[in-house]
Amino acid sequence: MRVAGDVARLKWLFSILLVCLPLTVHAERGTLWKVQRPYDNKASYLLGTIHSDDPAVTRLPARVEQVFSGAKSFTAELELDISTMLQAQLQTMLPADQRLQDMLGQQRYQQSVKLLVQHGVPEIMAMRMKPWAIAAQLSMPKPSSGLFLDLQLYQQAVDRGLPTYGLESIDEQLNTFERLTLAQQIAFLDDAIARHKDLPQTIERLIALYLQRDLDGMLAFSDSQLAMGNQSVNEVFKKDLIENRNRTMVLRMQPRLSEGDAFIAVGALHLPGKNGILNLLRQQGYQVEAVY
């Protein structure tokens, strides 16, 4: 099994940032944020990422590089090691006694497999994927290098010998998808197929807003995309994939923030909004300041 190929195919794990988000109440602009308690000199930094391998995204700005080079620990949404990646891949596959074709029907099945192959997924693997995993994969562009920003930062941290941490387990991150009924998974898949032709423009717009460091703009754009999707599925995603995860991530980053000099990277669209990480940190008494 080629590790690089597996990593590229697993980019869908981080498509969460493209899903629904709550409306914003703070004007948030910036991708790198300084976080510290008042009167405490132990500052840490929170980077909003976009889970893309586009060179425009993975090329770190000088200010971000400067802060990252001075960090004493690195934290991502997940520990991005090989065992996590392989575990994730296993969880996308159907049990041996289930057939994707029986679940989807012939026409939807053929369309799904065809699009997955275009994304670089081998047909033998595409035929065995769970419907929600296909939908997530088709919500992301075809990977190039597979070295998306979060993974790049993780690998650099490992090379530097930094302690690395994950805010979630892979089971926790995939649990929401696993709990979807078959009808909900198919609705999710139908949405992904219907929007697939417009995906390049969607991703291009999100990246443009990210490079402008416009979190509010990203949020508004995501809300507009959300409005076009299946509402029952998106309500589940809004609660479980965004709001509940934000609270969990804020809780679990506390030890790193207490240590100071931590560099924490999460999807940029987890940051803004009433229930976003920035506002949750403010509610806990942290000073949160955009530095880039």
Topology:
Layout: H1 3-9, E1 32-36, E2 44-49, H2 55-58, H3 62-69, E3 73-76, H4 82-91, H5 100-104, H6 106-118, H7 123-126, H8 131-138, H9 149-159, E4 164-166, H10 170-179, H11 182-195, H12 199-211, H13 215-226, H14 231-252, H15 254-259, E5 262-267, H16 277-283, E6 287-290
Parallel strand pairs: 2-5, 3-4, 3-5
Antiparallel strand pairs: 1-2, 1-6
Provide the descriptors you would attach to this structure in a database record:
292 residues; alpha/beta; six-stranded mixed sheet; 6 strands; 53% helix; 10% strand; globular; disordered N terminus
Structure description:
- This protein has 292 residues and is α/β, with parallel strands linked by helices.
- 53% of the residues lie in helices and 10% in strands.
- It has a six-stranded mixed β-sheet, with helices on both faces.
- It has one domain.
- A hairpin with a 7-residue loop joins β1 and β2.
- α8 packs parallel to α11 and α12 packs antiparallel against α13.
Summarize the structure.
With about 290 residues, this protein is α/β, with parallel strands linked by helices.
Helix content class: 40-55%
Structural class by SSE content:
alpha/beta
Number of domains: 1
Tell me the distance between the termini: 39 Å
Mean pLDDT: 89
Q: State the shape.
A: globular
Percent strand: 5-15%
Q: Any low-confidence stretches, pLDDT <50, length ≥5?
A: 1-5, 7-25
Strands side by side in the biggest sheet: 4-3-5-2-1-6
User: What integer value in Å does the Rg equal?
Assistant: 19 Å
Please count the helical segments: 16
Largest sheet composition: 6 strands, mixed
Please tally the β strands and state the result: 6
List the secondary-structure elements in sequence, H or E.
HEEHHEHHHHHHEHHHHHHEHE
